[in-house]
Amino acid sequence: MNILVLSDTHGNYPLAIKALDAVGNVDHIVHLGDGLEDAVIVEDISRLPTTKVLGNCDFSTTEVKDIFITLSGRNIFITHGHRFGVKAGLEELYQKASAGGASIVLFGHTHLPLIQTVNGMLFINPGCLSQNCKTTTCALLTITAGDATAKILPVA
Questions:
Q1: Which burial class, exposed, middle or buried, applies to 32 when counting CB atoms under 10 A from its CB (0-12, 13-18, 19+)?
Q2: pTM recorded for the entire structure
């Protein structure tokens, strides 16, 4: 299963659509907030299942702030990250994800791409697709039988 992970589009939905085109075959999209309207547009255009969470710049009462979902047999914690102090480190995020039994964590907010494993838990921050970001990136999470890998991809 291939999962396109986007975050911090901040109104730049055309670049989010370019990210979709750049990664090719995708089964699911995750948008990590700060651009909820962009996520809806990408979902409508792609017609792919899309999981969305609210970022600190999103204002909606219908979407969730964070969620645990299972994709391809893997429990994934999805959040924007601001509620867990990700700019100061991953400890709070790790504790929340661990308590929920997640093996993969998807988060944004810092605008900095990251792939890191902590005590067997895979953390992925796709970076930023905002026009204000110096480097615009997304992430591709691939889950196969018993394995999960990720890569950061530039989007221009």
A1: buried
A2: 0.97
Question: Count of alpha carbons within 13 Å of 59, Cβ hemisphere only?
Answer: 0
Closest to 64 measured CA to CA, from 38, 33, 107: 33
Q: Which residues of the chain form beta strands (DSSP E)? A: 2-6, 28-31, 50-52, 66-71, 74-79, 104-106, 114-118, 121-125, 137-144, 147-154
CATH number, domain 2-154, options 3.40.1180.10, 3.40.50.300, 3.60.21.10, 3.60.40.10: 3.60.21.10
pLDDT reported for residue 145:
85
Average pLDDT by stretches of 10, the chain with 156 residues:
98 95 94 96 96 94 93 97 97 98 98 97 97 95 93 96
Query: Quick one: pLDDT at residue 63?
Result: 87
